Amino acid sequence: MPIFMHFVPNLTFGHPMVECLRKSVGQDPFFDMHMMVSRPEQWVKPMAAAGANQYTFHIESTTNPGNLIKEIRESGMKVGLALKPGTTVEELAPWANQIDMALVMTVEPGFGGQKFMEDMMSKVSWLRSQFPSLDIEVDGGVGPDTIHKCAEAGANMIVSGSAVVGSDDPRSVIALLRTVVAEAIQKRSLDR
Questions:
Q1: Where are the alpha helices (DSSP H) in the chain?
Q2: Does the pLDDT at position 1 exceed 60?
Q3: Are 57 and 67 in contact (CB under 8 A)?
Q4: In the β-sheet with 78-83, what is the strand arrangement from edge to edge?
Q5: pLDDT value, residue 110
Q6: What's 113's DSSP letter?
Q7: Are 139 and 122 in contact (CB under 8 A)?
Q8: Contact between residue 102 and residue 57 where contact means Cβ atoms under 8 Å apart
Q9: Distance between CA atoms of 4 and 107, rounded to whole angstroms?
Q10: Sign (positive/negative) of CA torsion 70, 96, 154, 11?
Q11: Taking CA 183 as the corner, what is the angle to CA 189 and CA 84, rounded to the nearest 5 degrees?
């Protein structure tokens, strides 16, 4: 059973911003809302109405993941389920066949620029071995120096903030991250 944790009650990018971005950029970009909030249930309908494609919540932030997963699906969005570093990957396992993406946090949520926690790669590897078709995302401290570890462990979705924004050449950093992940996916498919 997940331990109920306190998350920040405010949003950095709320549904009004999502709605504005959706109107501005059209339907093509995929908007994954990583909700590091207390009571994630309260934001499902507003985010769906604003144009979010996926709603990712922390298992630690709710007492009833099953109901929240159902509500997200019924709102027309994909479901992502996130784990803080201190939460065991086995807590996500009962829900893995009901979600579209598992997010393994590789830093403590809430602050950019933290050091990558390499020991979280065992969670990624375990998820990949148990749920081979599940999208697995890593978030926190991911950049050119750590991307190979993420991709080799089985992550196929990457969040990289500081490494991209702080680079003199963000496009080349993004290209490198994409290439490394694509090569690891191809290698895994050949190894089967």
A1: 15-25, 44-50, 65-74, 121-130, 147-153, 162-165, 170-191
A2: no
A3: no
A4: 32-35, 54-58, 78-83, 101-105, 135-139, 157-159
A5: 73
A6: T
A7: no
A8: no
A9: 19
A10: positive
A11: 90
DSSP code at position 70: H
**Span 101-127, pLDDT tens digits:** 999 999 988 777 789 999 999 999 999
pLDDT of 4-61, one tens digit each?
A: 344 654 557 789 999 999 999 999 999 999 998 888 999 999 999 999 999 999 999 9
Alpha carbon distance 140, 159 (integer Å):
7
The verdict on pTM exceeding 0.70 is yes
Q: What is the DSSP string of 85-103?
A: TTS-GGGTGGGGGG-SEEE
Q: Which two three-digit tokens encode residue 161?
A: 């903030």
What is the predicted pLDDT for the residue at 10? 53
Closest CA to 99 of 137, 63, 138, 126: 137
Token readout for 117 is 């926690």
For residue 185, what are its two tokens?
Answer: 């996916």
